[in-house]
TrEMBL record:
Lineage: Bacteria, Pseudomonadati, Bacteroidota, Flavobacteriia, Flavobacteriales
InterPro entries: Thioredoxin-like_sf (IPR036249), Thioredoxin_domain (IPR013766), TPR-like_helical_dom_sf (IPR011990), TPR_rpt (IPR019734)
CDD domains for this protein: TRX_family (cd02947)
Ranges occupied by TPR repeats: 248-281
Protein name in the entry: Thioredoxin domain-containing protein
Domain Thioredoxin: 20-175
Organism: Aquimarina rubra
Keywords: TPR repeat
Length: 294
């Protein structure tokens, strides 16, 4: 009897914890609510999220001929959505994605939607840690799995339309946005951080062909940094200054992280280098304050 009672108590407590964390709502520093962790369409259809979700869902019209092409094969996949209810791209693309899934009669039990946070300490993270190991650097990110293996993903926005990108994914003929981040993440995971610094000249030639702006690797580094991978993040930001040597923001982003890690002398050096390309009074004042602290 006691064993049964303990099991019932454990089940009730566990169920309560799960209920608390699913569709979890938080408040940002401006007093605006946002969702964090696993969520569902029912929650997205409630205020204040319904203001953008319902509007964009209703206004999107998928191309029926594409839907007819993908609906059978799409059901062989499972899908994860990583989004931010605070993110403009997510507000635009996630309702469209749901509309395509509904039009394709995709089984809802094969879909998991995870809302990530925007605050600096938990940047693009979920309280359940679902983002770990998945290189979630932009939201929304739609990941397609088959037999438990990731096949492809749509990052931030489709290259054509949601349904056309899905068709390309199902055909195996798809390259997502931010190829530079995918490449750098593969290097970090397989060859290690030191490989980047030791082979920077070779890598600059490779990355110059696929990097559209300094903010691609910059955002990726920010995600790593606030996920506790400071060494990797700083090495990527150093590489980014070599890749974009005349961009002030590349040096400022690196210097900001060096300040946090208390590497003040190097931070000052990179802040000063940024002034060669942008005479920024705020940065000049920051340099003065840091020099006083030494």
């Amino acid at each position: 009897m006691q064993t049964t009672l303990r099991f019932v108590i454990f089940f009730v407590i566990s169920s309560h914890v799960i209920a608390q964390t699913f569709n979890q709502e938080m408040i940002n520093t401006k007093g605006t609510p946002y969702l964090s962790g696993k969520i569902n369409i029912e929650k997205l259809n409630t205020a204040p999220y319904s203001q953008w979700f319902s509007k964009n869902y209703d206004s999107y019209e998928p191309k029926q001929d594409i839907i007819d092409d993908i609906k059978t094969d799409l059901r062989k996949y499972t899908i994860k959505i990583f989004m931010g209810t605070w993110c403009g791209d997510s507000k635009r693309e996630v309702p469209n994605f749901y509309k395509v899934l509904d039009a394709s009669e995709f089984p809802i039990n094969r879909l998991t939607t995870i809302a990530v946070r925007a605050d600096r300490e938990h940047y693009k993270q979920s309280p359940g840690g679902e983002q770990e190991g998945l290189n979630i650097h932009r939201v929304p990110t739609f990941i397609f799995y088959k037999n438990g293996k990731e096949m492809h993903r749509i990052v931030e926005s489709p290259k054509k339309t949601i349904e056309e990108d899905m068709k390309d994914i199902l055909s195996g003929n798809y390259t997502p946005n931010y190829a530079s981040v995918t490449k750098m993440n593969t290097i970090i995971e397989t060859l290690g951080t030191d490989y980047v610094s030791k082979n920077s000249e070779k890598l600059i030639n490779e990355f110059s062909a696929i990097s559209k702006s300094l903010y691609e690797l910059n955002t990726y580094a920010n995600v790593l940094f606030f996920a506790g991978k400071q060494k990797e993040a700083i090495e990527i930001l150093k590489f980014n200054t070599l890749l974009f040597p005349k961009e002030a923001d590349a040096y400022i982003s690196l210097a900001n992280k060096l300040v946090i890690t208390e590497n003040i002398s190097d931070a000052i050096k990179h802040y000063e280098h940024s002034l060669d390309f942008d005479k920024n009074e705020k940065i000049e004042n920051t340099i003065g304050e840091l020099k006083k602290s030494l």
